[in-house]
Design a protein that fits this description.
Blueprint lengths: L4 E4 L11 E3 L4 E5 L3 E6 L2 E6 L3 E5 L7 E6 L5 E6 L6 E6 L6 E2 L7 E6 L5 E6 L10 E6 L6 E2 L7 E4 L5 E5 L20 E4 L5 E3 L7 E7 L2 E6 L8 E6 L4 E4 L8 E6 L3 E6 L2 E6 L5 E4 L1 E4 L8 E4 L4 E6 L5 E6 L2 E6 L6 E2 L8 E6 L5 E6 L6 E6 L7 E2 L12 E2 L5 E5 L4 E6 L5 E6 L5 H5 L4 E2 L5 E6 L8 E6 L4 E4 L11 E2 L6 E2 L2
Parallel strand pairs: 6-27
Antiparallel strand pairs: 1-28, 2-27, 3-4, 4-5, 5-6, 7-8, 8-9, 9-10, 11-12, 12-13, 13-14, 15-16, 16-17, 17-18, 19-20, 20-21, 21-22, 23-24, 24-25, 25-26, 29-30, 30-31, 31-32, 33-34, 34-35, 35-36, 37-38, 38-39, 39-40, 41-42, 42-43, 43-44, 45-46
Length: 502
């Protein structure tokens, strides 16, 4: 196979702050009386609570996350992969040699400290059997054998000040890739008495209630139960047994909050905020980091092993392939190799050569959202965006035989008929039960005269599928099979008189 190389470059000024950058994309913050710790670029940094320039504490190749200050603020416990597995480590808050506390083969995720500061609380799959759930453990800050807490299942937790009770969730959705979930795995905040083993559900709603933080007589937590349908900070009053929303973020969800003695720190929209629990006011913390920005160094990559999709020219002499978001024009046997997109800052996907051989269609997010691009393959001209979508993700491109129309499907399961000359988009059908695999596998067959296109789609259930035929002349959709069976892979015969399918 030919070796294909691409240089990835970041378009930044040589004098951009001399390595000082606005540290957006910060994650997993925690706060002590004087400092904030957080993860940035998979490393842990520490900064004064008032903001300013952050200092890097860790730098292994793997990621480090969930930094948690000890009650006295002198140490930080965190999860890291220094030796091939995610384990619990402790490091002095002002820097030093990390100390490894756990050695099990399963990932160990730091949750915090016991109130006396002698042990670190973490979750692990080590005793879950089928690895379908986690349990809580503590391990001495000096090292030793971890001890399992008498809680059946656990994901996030926080101790009461006396250490006799713990607020926790037995499941979590914070690392899921969709939001506003309402269903059987939506977590609630529970209170567990470590002496009597009594359990109480203090939220008990359909929303997602996560990351409890016990402060005095209140349990703060993150929930999307408010009218904004965004994750915000809520408060449960232990004495009054009432739940109250504290923050009102509307545009962004807050993520992974953590508490100090009278503050909660959290991330929202890439920025770090401090919530004063005495007055309920949240303020953004201005943080900069200084590092070598090695991710921005131009790098030469061999992408021959990263090919994702390809399209052959009608004459069979050339093929365009997609690799790492770039498009390459390759010869069938011998000839030149050309990177026809040459834009490492954007992603080009699903190239498709037109039947007349004159154009290449593909999706590109160069504008910020994916648009259908048309490139003239007979002239050295810039590609043209023929759509103006404001959101969404699109899949395989299917040209009509006359090279005038295109059919594709988007993440909303909408079948789109696109006129190449005008860029007009008509939604001809709407699927059901189509997850990522079904969307990637969606195929269309055009009739030779470019009037009809046919495809298979599941609408009755997730097991069977029907054949659907769309008439572009009369703008009419026809269901050809009952849906009782799994009818798939329809293809027009060369004369257009028959349809073959499995």
């Amino acid at each position: 196979m030919k070796k294909i190389y691409v240089i990835f470059m970041a378009m930044v000024s040589f004098f951009t702050g001399y390595g000082q950058i606005d540290a957006r994309l910060m994650q997993y913050p925690d706060v002590s009386d004087s400092h904030i710790a957080f993860t940035y670029g998979d490393d842990i940094y520490i900064v004064d609570k008032a903001g300013g320039v952050a200092h890097q504490l860790t730098s292994p190749q793997g990621p480090e996350f969930y930094p948690r200050f000890s009650p006295d603020g002198k140490y930080i416990a965190y999860t890291a992969n220094y030796n091939g597995n995610f384990d619990v480590y402790v490091i002095p808050a002002m820097g030093g040699v990390p100390k490894r506390l756990t050695y099990h083969g399963m990932p160990d995720m730091v949750q915090g400290w016991t109130p006396d500061g002698k042990s670190v609380l973490f979750t692990s799959l080590r005793e879950s059997g089928k690895e379908r759930f986690s349990k809580f453990f503590t391990v001495s800050a000096e090292g030793g054998t971890p001890t399992r807490l008498p809680i059946p299942y656990g994901e996030f937790a926080s101790y009461s000040s006396d250490g006799n009770t713990i607020a926790y969730t037995d499941r979590s959705r914070v690392n899921r890739n969709w939001k506003r979930y309402r269903g059987g795995t939506a977590p609630d905040i529970m209170i567990f008495d470590l002496t009597t083993f009594k359990t109480e559900n203090i939220t008990n709603n359909a929303a997602n209630d996560e990351t409890p933080m016990w402060v005095g007589n209140s349990i703060y937590y993150m929930s999307d139960n408010g009218p904004e349908k965004r994750n915000n900070i809520w408060k449960y009053d232990v004495e009054k047994t009432t739940n109250t929303q504290i923050t009102q973020f509307k545009d962004f969800d807050i993520t992974f909050p953590a508490n100090g003695k009278d503050e909660i720190v959290f991330e929202a929209g890439g920025n770090i905020y401090l919530l004063n629990l005495n007055n309920g006011i949240s303020e953004e913390v201005n943080i900069q980091v200084i590092n070598d920005q090695r991710a921005l160094i131009p790098t030469l990559k061999n992408v021959a092993e990263n090919l994702q999709s390809a399209t052959i020219s009608p004459d069979g002499k050339r093929v365009v392939v997609q690799a790492r978001g770039e498009l390459f024009d390759l010869p069938a046997t011998e000839g030149f190799v050309s990177n026809i997109s040459q834009n490492s800052g954007t992603a080009e996907r699903y190239p498709a050569w037109s039947p007349d051989g004159k154009s290449l269609a593909y999706w590109s997010d160069a504008s910020g959202e994916y648009q259908l691009m048309i490139r003239n393959m007979t002239k050295d001209t810039q590609p043209i965006a023929i759509t103006n979508f404001t959101s969404g993700f699109n899949y395989e491109i299917f040209w009509s035989p006359n090279s005038k129309k295109i059919v594709s499907i988007n993440q909303a399961m909408e079948v789109q008929l696109i006129d190449v000359a005008t860029g007009s988009v008509k939604i001809t059908d709407h699927g059901k039960y189509m997850f990522e695999g079904n969307l990637r596998g969606f195929k269309v067959s055009w009739s030779p005269d470019s009037r009809y296109f046919i495809y298979s789609m599941s609408k009755e259930n997730r097991v069977t599928s029907s054949l659907f035929l769309y008439d572009t002349q009369n703008n009419q959709l026809n269901k050809l099979t009952s849906g009782f069976y799994n009818d798939a892979d329809p293809v027009f015969s060369s004369d257009g008189n028959y349809i073959f399918y499995t």
